[in-house]
From TrEMBL:
Protein name: Thioredoxin
Name of the gene encoding the protein in the UniProt record: trxA
Keywords from the UniProt entry: Disulfide bond, Electron transport, Redox-active center, Transport
UniProt KW Disulfide bond keyword: yes
Coiled coil: none
All copies of domain Thioredoxin, residue ranges: 1-105
Keyword Transcription regulation: no
Pfam families: Thioredoxin
SUPFAM superfamilies: Thioredoxin-like
Length: 105
């Protein structure tokens, strides 16, 4: 199971991480979030070079607002405290791997 991050520990666990961290902004009422969750769990197991955590939108509105998260699921990839990629919507594993692990030209 992916670890949860909150408004209170977001900076410590995401922004100051020495490796890239993918944050899934999700909600209990979100059907596509339930579809992408297991995909992210597999990616976390297969790619230890990045951290993958989840953040409940309803319970952590400060962080979601700060990063202008408007839809669930939204995934933000942070590296050195900065957003380097945004992925909106549920995607299959192959599509997420392409987006996360293909270098930007």
């Amino acid at each position: 199971m992916l670890q949860a991050v909150t408004d209170a520990d977001f900076a410590e666990r995401v922004l100051t991480s020495d490796k890239p961290v993918l944050v899934e902004f999700w909600a209990t009422w979100c059907g596509p979030c339930r579809m992408v969750g297991p995909v992210l769990e597999r990616l976390a197991d297969e790619h230890p070079e990045i951290g993958i955590v989840k953040m409940d939108l309803d319970a952590n509105q400060v962080t979601a607002t700060r990063y202008q998260v408007m839809a669930a699921p939204t995934m933000l990839l942070f590296h050195h405290g900065e957003v380097v990629k945004m992925i909106v919507g549920a995607k299959p594993k192959a599509a997420l791997e392409r987006e996360l692990f293909t270098p930007v030209a």
